[in-house]
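CORE FACILITY INTAKE
Project code: CF-77B
Contact: R.S. (postdoc)
Sample description: multi-component assembly, two entities in total
Requested service: structural model of the whole complex
Turnaround: standard
Below are the sequence entries exactly as provided by the requester. Do not edit them.
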Amino acid sequence: MTSPVSGNQNDPERDQMIDTYYREHSRELWALFYSMCSDAERAYDAVQEAFLRYYDYHGEPVRDLRAWLLRVGQNWLRDVARKKSNSCGLLPGMDDFAGHRESAEDILRLSERQGQIRKAMQELNEDDRKVLVMKYSMDWSAAQMATVMDCSAAAIDMRLSRARRRLAEVLTEQGFEYE
Amino acid sequence: MNDSSNNRSAGNIPSEELMDGLLKDFFKLETPSGLNRPFRRPVASRQESPAASLVTLSTSEPTAAPRSHKMVVASAIAVLAMSLIVAMKVQTPSSSGSSTAANTQPTEPTEKLMLVSPKGDAPSTQVIGEDGVTLEETDAIEVKSQK
């Protein structure tokens, strides 16, 4: 997407454009960042950071906003990975249980399962992770994925099947209990 | 055989269908809910720039500058007056003292102060002079007129 306007933060037209672009593409950007870092919160922060940087951007008009945001988010993720600390994070997905009736035991078990799958995802290569994220997080068709990954839809189906099998193998090696 | 065992292939590797369901559930929880909300803009950048706020302040109170100017002038005058008074007070005692000294010097010779004990008439062995003389010793000295 070409962005003809840049720099003026109080421009309502630009604000509207950023809002629309965020609504339409933030999920895709998150999925791509997630496939890079396997950390849902960090990928979300990368999306926010990329859009905030664009919001404060005063330079030349951006020709390809998607590429620009991807580059900014990737660089931010690299910086964060470099400064990575051993700080304790929140259990992922816990916000979704606020006010629900599940017992603490159920929540803990679910959180452990999520952690195990996340750990297994990290064992996959980036392309495998990418197809899984596009398929299951964004619900993209093979044709859509083929456009992004520059290959045929049949190749995407094969890659998807292979990625699922690899993930299953890793999970089985880890002693994951399938329900 | 039950459904669970049907979904497993040889070597305990789960079927594609089972993995499909597993991944759908996983990403349902993994995807942040914030992605469904609109973009949050920074609040600070929505505010006016410092330059704009300075302009607003200066135009909102047009009398502020003249009032402060008057205050500066008034305080300067007050300080000047105070310093004049202090200078006059400092100058007055020194000038009067010099005039009386000028009047008394030629007429009367200065009297030499007598050494006395701090305890009045009580006998004292305390040294009262630079030469080590006590008050009792001073009393014992007989003064005779020179012939």
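Facility notes:
- The domain at 107-172 of chain A is CATH 1.10.10.10 (Arc Repressor Mutant, subunit A).
- Residues 86-94 of chain A have pLDDT under 50 and may be disordered.
Invoice: internal transfer
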